[in-house]
Specification:
single chain; alpha/beta; 4-stranded parallel β-sheet; 3-stranded mixed β-sheet; 10 helices; about 15% strand; globular
Length: about 280
């Protein structure tokens, strides 16, 4: 199916939903989805909702607010503290299931109370290849993924976003900060704050796409392969090491494979992944 046909299919899907409450993170996918929903349904039939939590950096929340305002969307902030969800902070492989079950449960109840027909999210056609137990929770609660249903890939969403003038068209991918820890390592508010501040430093230094994976007292830095060479600069290495140690890391390492999504899933066995396949 051609890109324009997929966009037309997306518009038909949204039109048939009638009214929607959007799980809005301010990322590439949910911003594009919000724009199309507003174009198809109009402002009164769309509500964007963003969850504030310790796994979602303050800078991302501020960007989401600014984007919703720019698009002229109704936007509300709710509290969703994952660390209070039973089973989450222990960080088992299915951690994301508990998180999404709690968050989407809140959104479904909110949609029902406000009179919106469906809760929708920004999952796309590429979100089926990795280990994603959160998808199971979404499906159990009847959350709709219009981008995925229309067959739109991340690259196509970026293309359309650029054509529509959305500032998120080239925004780096982001995942909640809980994904920075190996399964089984307990997640705390302090650890989340430390990782968030470490990534803010990499952002300030001009890195395009990055992750700081936290392995106890060791920070494992992932950056794009073509940006690894930046660490050949001794002054940059010294700055990163100094600042990371101020945050409480004892050791600072660079992952020579480079940035990739879901690198913590590489330690999982296939049978573990199979239990949570969508």
């Amino acid at each position: 199916m051609k890109e324009m046909e997929k966009l037309e299919k997306l518009e038909d899907i949204i039109r048939n939903l009638g009214s929607v409450l959007i799980a809005f993170s301010g990322g590439v996918d949910s911003t594009f989805l919000l724009k199309v929903c507003l174009d198809v349904l109009g402002k009164d039939k769309v509500l964007a909702v963003t969850a504030r939590s310790s796994t979602y950096p303050a800078r991302e929340l501020e960007e989401a607010k600014a984007l919703a305002l720019k698009l002229g969307a109704r936007h509300e902030i709710i509290e969703s503290e994952e660390l209070a969800v039973p089973g989450f902070s222990e960080n088992p492989p299915e951690r994301c299931y508990y998180c999404k079950k709690e968050l989407f449960g809140k959104l479904v109840r909110m949609a029902r109370e406000r009179g919106f027909n469906f809760v929708v999210d920004g999952s796309n056609a590429d979100d089926t290849g990795d280990f994603r137990p959160g998808m199971k929770a979404k499906d159990e609660l009847g959350v709709v993924s219009p981008l995925k249903e229309a067959g739109l890939t991340k690259a196509e969403i970026r293309n359309f976003s650029r054509e529509m003038g959305l500032p998120t068209w080239d925004k780096p991918s982001f995942a909640c900060l809980a994904s920075r820890f190996p399964y089984g390592e307990k997640i705390t508010a302090e650890k989340l704050d430390r990782v968030g501040k470490a990534e803010e430093l990499l952002d300030a230094l001009g890195f395009t796409q990055y992750r700081v994976r936290s392995h106890g007292d060791l920070a494992r830095i992932e950056v794009l392969p073509d940006e690894i060479d930046k660490f050949f600069d001794s002054s940059l290495r010294e700055k990163v090491t100094k600042e990371f140690k101020k945050l409480g890391f004892v050791y600072v390492s660079l992952d020579l494979t480079g940035y990739r999504t879901g690198s913590m899933n590489e330690s999982l066995k296939e049978e573990e992944k199979a239990l949570w396949k969508n």
